Amino acid sequence: MAKECNEFTQKLYAKRLISDEQFEAIKAYGSRGLFSLHYELRFLLYLGILLFTSGIGTLIYKNIDSIGHSAVLGLLFLLIGIGFYFCFKKAKGFHKDEVLFDNPVYDYIVLLCTILSCIFIGYLQYQYSIFGYGLSSLVCSFVGFVCAYYFDNKSALSIGITGLATFIGITSTPKSLLESEIYSNPSLTFSGIALGGLLILCELYSNKIALKKHFQLVFLAFALQLIGVCGIAGLLESHWYIFVFLLAVLLYFFYKKSHEIGSTFLFVFTVLYGYIGFNILLFKLFDNIDFSEIWPVITILTPLYFIGSIFGFIKVIQHFNKQKA
């Protein structure tokens, strides 16, 4: 088709029915070829699932008195059952290597069913208190891990890891970030670092036995965020010196891992958390020094320091990308 179109354009140009500018524009447009809508369509599917589950939650919240608890639970159970029926029917079973559905739409059905399952479990706990304290998050995490490994779904794995973080008391909602729950509760810093270490061990063991090795980046990404945030929170505590060595060792591990697997995401956040930690230690050091006599010099050097930091940050990322390429 492209060849025929090019020949037709040449004939039009030979007969002077189109100008030089039009001929060049048509040639440039034709040279683009076909382009894929794969990622755009997958994004729309993902967005549609989030909107659908959000809509169900809003509908339940606003009409719970007229709908009834049993009807809501029954509807959720029916939707989950239908979704999992088709997923199990089309799935190729559990394999240690990466196994994909013939149609990628089923990956999003798995994600939808996993989210609906968590809504069902959460609603069951809220209304009837079937599970013990905090166990509903652990059950949601279990559902996420089962769906992730059986259906080979990274989104379900993310839900499973998030459920574990919620179980130990770490949440990533805007409310928790604004109220600084992690920074006001020292026990959460140790819990978060311990969970991050557990995820690292899971990643290392999975690589050793060749179990879903493509899940590696998901485990490392969550581990880095947990260790980075909780480690920085630890540096703000009175026993901050404990976290200096711990954070330095773990960030060095992620630095090596980012080069090993060529992940810009891991590298950027490793450098970012390292930079924040370094500045916290720098301020702790300067806190014991009297700068009253050289304060004008400090006010000049501080903006230069941060500008230089931004420039250096950009340069190290560019250097990393060149090495990766």
Automatic annotation (TrEMBL):
Keywords: Membrane, Transmembrane, Transmembrane helix. The keyword Transmembrane applies. The chain crosses the membrane at residues 43-61, 67-88, 108-124, 130-151, 156-174, 186-205, 217-234, 240-255, 262-282, 294-314. Pfam families: DUF2157. Residues 11-155 form the DUF2157 domain. This is DUF2157 domain-containing protein.
